[in-house]
Fold this protein.
Amino acid sequence: MAEHGFDPGPANGVLGPETAAAAAAFETAYDTTEVQPPAAITAENAPDWCRLLRSAPRPALRDLAAARGIYIGTAVDAAPFEGDAGYRTAIAREFNVVVASLVFKFSELHPSRSEYSFEASDALVAFAEANGMAVRGHVLVWHNRIPGWLLDLRPSRDEAIELLREHIMTVVGRYRGRIRSWDVVNEAIDNQTYELRQDSFWYQAIGPDYMRLAFEFAHEADPDAVLYYNDYGAEGLGRKSNAVYELVGDLVATGVPVGGVGWQMHVRNGFHVTPDHVQNGERLNALGLEVSITELDVADPHPTTEADLASQAVAYWEVVSLCLRLPSCPAVVMWGFTDAYSWIPSFLPGFGNATIFDGSMTPKPAYYAVLRALRTPA
Ligand code: G3I
C-alpha cells in the first residue's frame, strides 16, 4: 500500500472486469509485437503505425497504469478545471494522479503576509479524493512566483526562515495525509554554473541552507509525504544531471528527508530515451530515491504532420517505458493532457501540439502509444 492509503491499484497486472474487457478487446485488435514503434518514423510508415495504434475499445490509462503499479497523471489548469466539464471528466477517466499547474505555488496560496488562499487548491484535492486519485504538491520553494509582499519585506535571514517555516507548515500541514508527494524545491541548479542558482529569493535571504530547511519543515509537517527535488534538463547524463545527483546525494548523506527526484521532461518532438536516462535513473534510485516523470510534454514545431504525430507517439512510448523499466519510478505526470490548454504555445512560440489529446479532446497517436507502453510487458 502506498503512503496515505492510496494505492494506484494491484501491481500484479490484474485489471478490473470492465477494464479487462476493454483491454482484451484492445489486445485482440493488435499484437504487441506488431504495434512496437518502427525503428525510424518516416512519412511513409507513420500513417500505418498510427492506424495500428488506434482502436475503438480503449481501456483508461489509469487502469492500465494501476495494474503496472504506477501513477499516470496530468497537470491541471485552474481555468478549464473550473469551467470545462469535459476537461474534468477526461481527467477523472484517464488519470490517477494530478498536480496543479499554478494554484499550489507560493504566490497563489499566500497572496499577502497574513492571508492564505486555499479555495482552488482545496477544490483540486477534493476532486482527486472523490475520484480515487493521488495528488502531487507543486511547489513549495521556487525562484518564480514569489509574491510582491515578500520581495518588498526584505526580511532578515531569521525572518525569512520563519516565513519559510510558516508557509510550509501551513500548506503541507493543511494537506497532511492527503498529498502523496511534494516538489519541495524546484529548479535550484543554475544552468550556466551548475551550482545552486543565486538569483533566487530564498538563496539570497537565507543562503544555501534554505534547501535543507525546506525539506525538514515539509517532513515535520507531513512525515509520510515523499519529498522531491524537481528540475528540467537533468534526465540524461551530463553536467546538470551530475549537479543534481551530487546535490541530492549530499542531502541524503546528511540525513535531509529527500525522497525523490522529479524529471520534468519538457522535451521536443524527435526526443528519444537513451541508455544515459536509464543509468541516471538507476544511480538516483541507488541513493534510495524515487524518480518520477513530473511534467512530460513533447513540443512539436508548427506545422504538425502525420509523421510528427507518429514520432511524438514514439517519444511518449519511450518515456513511459523508461519509467516502467526503472527500479523506482512511481509516476508519469504530463504537463497538461490536451492541446486545448497547453502552456507550450504561450511560452514557446512556433511550437505546440505537445500533449496526448488534441484541441477537441480527441486522443492522438501519443495517447495510444501510452496505452501500448502500459500494456507492453517491460
Ligand atoms: O489565468 C490567467 C489569466 O486569467 C490572465 O489573463 C493571464 C494574464 O497574465 O494570466 C493567466 O495566468 C497565467 C497562468 O500560467 C495560466 O495557467 C499566469 O499569468 C502564468 O504566469 C502562469 O504560468 C505558469 C508558469 O508555470 C508560472 O507559474 C504556467 O501555466 C505553468 O505551466 C508553468 O509551469 C512550470 C512549472 O511550474 C515548473 N516547470 C516549468 C513549467 C513550465 O514553465
Q: What stands out?
A: Residues 1-13 have pLDDT under 50 and may be disordered.
